[in-house]
Amino acid sequence: MKEGVFDVRGLLAVNGIIYRYMLKLYDLIVLNILFVVSSLPLITIGASITALYDVTLNMQNGHTRQVYSAYLDSFQKNIKQATQVWLGFLLLIATAVILISVGQGNVWLSLVLLGFITITMMALIYIFALISKFQHNTSSMIKNGVLLAIEHTAYSIIMLSIAGVLVIGVPLYIHWAGVLSMLLTFSLTAYIQSYFLNKLFLEVLNRN
Question: Is residue 3 part of a domain?
Fold first, then answer.
């Protein structure tokens, strides 16, 4: 190739940048579809989120494995523990919402409960990610998830904001993004969050 001539073939080659990005995009689309389908019973959403994090954490680490089999293996392995956490979360959120509705005139109570809901949602990110990577009893997972959410507030706010923008904000304000949600939103959210989760887990493991 002459000097200064752009090598398009290099980009499109099996090891080229474009090929690698297209392959990752394909994996994220497959992963997103798996997540949506496996979440349809609603009660299995916890197991679906756990399997989603399992795959995206490995993707961020550069560990390649067939998305379909990796997702199903994690889903089946963690369904009991993840479902316990998910049902407990729903119960807590339902209770908090009822209390907010009943005490609408009490501003301080509403603020406290909204803060509780926010911390709970931040902790869930860590809890499901921990379940996907480590073997501990459920109470330990919840305790560690809450501690991580509080100790690493900046990471927690960033990851919760990413989920809010991509999962709620984009489909709500960009009407055609409903199709995007079916194809990419959930897996892309978990993939971006997994960058921060891997970084944080590495810091914690090195510290201990």
Answer: no
Please give the pLDDT value at position 208. Answer: 66
**Domain presence at residue 67:** yes
User: Has residue 92 been placed in a domain?
Assistant: yes
CB-CB contact of 161 with 140 (8 Å): no
Whole-structure pTM value: 0.88
Which residue segment(s) compose the domain that 182 sits in? 8-207
Asked if the structure places residue 1 within a domain, the reply is no
Q: What percent of the chain has pLDDT over 90?
A: 64
Residues 171, 29: Cα–Cα separation, whole Å: 17
- Nearest-10 Cα torsion for 18, 21, 27, 32: -120
Distance (Å, whole) CA 53 – CA 129: 6
Q: How many domains does the chain have?
A: 1
**Tokens representing 151?**
């100790």
Q: Note the Cα 177 to chain centre separation in Å.
A: 19
What one-character-per-residue DSSP string does 126-170 give? HHHHHHHH----HHHHHHHHHHHHHHTHHHHHHHHHHHIIIIIIH
Q: How far is CA 87 from CA 50, 54, 160, in A?
A: 14, 20, 20
What DSSP designation does 183 have? Answer: I
